[in-house]
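FAQ: What does the model actually see?

It sees only this:
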Amino acid sequence: MTNIRELIHWFDQRGKVLVALSGGVDSSIVAYACHKSLGNSAIAVTADYKTLPREELESAKNTCSEIGIKHIIIHYSELENPDFIKNDKNRCFHCRTELSEHLRKISIREAANLIVDGTNADDLIDYRPGIQAMRDCGVKSPLAELGFTKVQVRNEAKKVGLSVYDRPSNSCLASRIPWGQKITAERLARIEVSEIMVKRVFGVKQVRVRDLNGVAKIEVAPEELELVSDRYRISKISRTLKQIGFNSVMIDPEGYKPGKINVITD
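And it is asked to produce this:
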């Protein structure tokens, strides 16, 4: 079974390495192992783009503080990329291609000879054009190469004391908008505010607020569905979400499932 020692040794003799750090547990354990192996030759890079939830950025900062790894935050807007905002099934490919180019520039500036990300073995099962984009640009995925599953990643992160070990999986805010519907700054903003409010009102840990042409569809983890059954709180969150631009609000009775809205819509 794969373990943290194997991940640490993967980085031995790799020179200087950049870790694309999103703020989630996968890239965090990669950053930890990279720093353990290479010390000051390990650098974490987080892209503060328009679709990154603020809580993910704060998580990335906290993780780097725990690890002691050098942290570079880069800023740009993928909303300036017409291929991205049209939001077709290759949205993630366009996003990750642009990210890879920014990482490549940082690697040149920092004299790093390798870029890695947090893709794990389970990620390879799903339709992930973003993974292919990163690979096309030469980014390596040590977790996937070593066969780390999501469960194994969390177990190892807990063992080494990373506070992010039980953090719910997250994704960019654009993933809340169905393929075929244009991505705008306004839609991203109301999605992010809505998810913060849903967490506060219901006390749930994992939530997605899907923006279906103005309809807010709230998804929470299946095991947390009972928490969103209170009629008073449902009424309260409905009023709040309508005030920030949604036309109507619904709660998905099946709960959250990755890739649920990856279909082309008009």
